[in-house]
Specification:
alpha/beta, 5-stranded parallel beta sheet, 7 strands, 40% helix
Length: 164
């Protein structure tokens, strides 16, 4: 009776309609995800630390978008130019972290794919430029440097560490 009740509840529950993966499958999936993605806060912390962060940040957007705002120190290389110009701008021995506008844009994934096909180690920065600015990190525009107040829906208000 308990088993039938649990099955009926799972079938009616959209979260559990497809059962969770096994712990081993979940560990493999999430481990792989972290190999492909970097968090905005982690990128900012690595760039702010003294010394070489061990990677280069690549903005894959258009020149107009770059001028509107970009991460200080990022390399500007629009996705359409990666095959032609990557070897002139990037060291193949240094991992690349790509970004574009934000979560609604897959430009960073397209750039990461283009770089991986050329033999670069690459990660995509989740959240893109949108979350960089929304989390209150400094950025550059054609007019100079700016920083916005952190959005309390994306970053802790009273701390540099979200605890995750």
């Amino acid at each position: 009776m308990v088993m039938t009740s649990q099955l009926t509840a799972s079938a009616a529950n959209p979260v559990l309609r497809v059962p969770p993966a096994s712990p081993a499958a979940a560990a493999a999936y999430f481990g792989a995800s972290l190999a492909f993605h970097a968090d905005v806060s982690d990128v900012a912390a690595a760039l702010a630390a003294d010394g070489d962060p061990g990677f280069v940040v690549l903005d894959s957007r258009s020149t107009a978008s770059w001028d509107q705002g970009h991460i200080p120190g990022a390399v500007h290389l629009p996705t359409a130019l990666i095959a032609e110009r990557a070897q002139d701008l990037l060291d193949p021995a240094v991992p690349v972290v790509t970004y574009c506008w934000g979560p609604g844009c897959n430009g960073a994934a397209r750039a990461a794919l283009a770089l991986a096909e050329l033999g670069y180690q690459v990660k995509e920065m989740l959240g893109g430029f949108e979350y960089w600015a929304r989390e209150g990190f400094e950025f550059e525009t054609w007019e100079g440097r700016e920083r916005r107040t952190a959005d309390p829906l994306t970053a802790p208000v009273d701390s540099d560490d979200c605890g995750c």
